[in-house]
Amino acid sequence: MAATLHAFTNAAELASGLADKVTERLSAAITARATASIAVSGGSTPKAFFQALSVRDLDWSKVTVTLVDERFVPADNERSNHLLVANNLLQNKAKAARFLPLYQKSGSAEDAARLATAETKAIGNPFDVVILGMGGDGHTASFFPGGSNLAAALDPATPRGIITMEAEGAGEPRLTFTFSSLQDARLLVLHIEGAGKKDTLAKAEEAGEEAEMPIRAVLRRAASPVEIYWAP
Q1: With CB atoms 3.0 to 4.6 Å apart as the test, which of 38, 50, 71, 81 could cross-link to 172 if both were Cys?
Q2: Residue 210: is it exposed, middle or buried by C-beta count within 10 angstroms (0-12/13-18/19+)?
Q3: Cα separation of the two ends of the chain
Q4: What are the tens digits of pLDDT across the range 138-190?
């Protein structure tokens, strides 16, 4: 599946352009169905985008926000994607949005994944918007090369919902939506910044195994062209 590249001169312009695009798609969903949904990624890259989106004019009370993946840590942990979203996206006008976290207080990541799957079923499918990031190793969401549940995470036959992932270098166990949950989003965006990430993307677009660079599954098998937003 061919991807569409949107290149910006700097991160601030990217954040504004992506916020405009997402606002347009969420507004259209609200007009069509009186509800809208978006799943976002963590890490440092989306902060400026989150802040730009948080001030956009939108009926945020009709928007449900969740995460594509999360560390198995409480919401107040500095490594939590929940905390990142709370501090940067669920502010200003976007305070009115409904947020469904993936982390659930439980005895194990596996139990948390089951609870989060039940909690997020209310969102429905497909997502209106999914924003993915990408690591330098070609991982996206928590689909890590060599990850404990990678084959299941990428298998389109795996039921929609959240599963666990553990991988060397990933730190805490992760909770991640399966690829089958994300692949048919009405708008699927890959948000990357820096020359190094663009080099990683170029490598991912070459022939090779999806397990070696899981972002290949997204680029090859998403239901519609992936919109790549990139800035140096």
Answers
A1: 71
A2: buried
A3: 24
A4: 999 999 999 999 999 999 999 999 999 999 999 999 999 999 999 999 999 99
